[in-house]
Specification:
The chain is α/β, with parallel strands linked by helices and about 140 residues long. About 45% of the residues lie in helices and about 10% in strands.
């Protein structure tokens, strides 16, 4: 973002090619509300620093809920990073978070292991909505 005009133009070109764009680690570092206004993005990912403790820390829970409301108001999808337990996953569902990723869903894994896992999942007799899937840690999907 040292050259904002160039960054926006580049992101617009990528979006024009069909890429979906995210603001990662929202709420920390260089992320800012002005980015939501200026950048052609589709989603924001709430940094795990707020998600991890939201079951115990009311301030973190308010920040997450407010961020979700803000993003939805701007037409953005929201991904919560760092979901490590069922309590946080349930809280995120209750406040309308669109997608989750983290070790509660499954650990990151190498591509060969992921491929084997996907084949096994496709053959599973259980409905996809009842399974916790390692690919959800790599590719965000709805928390079920």
């Amino acid at each position: 973002m040292d050259e904002p005009e160039l960054a926006v133009a580049t992101l617009q070109q990528l979006r024009g090619l069909g890429f979906r764009l995210s603001i990662d680690d929202f709420g920390t570092g260089h992320s800012a509300l002005s980015y939501l206004k200026r950048l052609p993005v589709d989603e924001l990912k709430i940094d795990q620093a707020f998600v991890l403790g939201m079951a115990e820390d009311a301030s973190d829970a308010r920040i997450v809920r407010s961020t979700i409301d803000l993003a939805h108001g701007l037409g953005l999808r929201v991904v919560a990073e760092g979901v490590e337990d069922a309590a946080v996953c349930a809280l995120l569902q209750s406040v309308g978070c669109d997608l989750v990723q983290g070790t509660h869903i499954g650990p990151p894994m190498p591509v060969p292991q992921f491929s084997e896992w996907r084949i096994a999942q496709a053959a599973s007799p259980w409905p996809a909505s009842t399974r916790h899937a390692p690919f959800q840690a790599l590719l965000p999907v709805p928390c079920l």
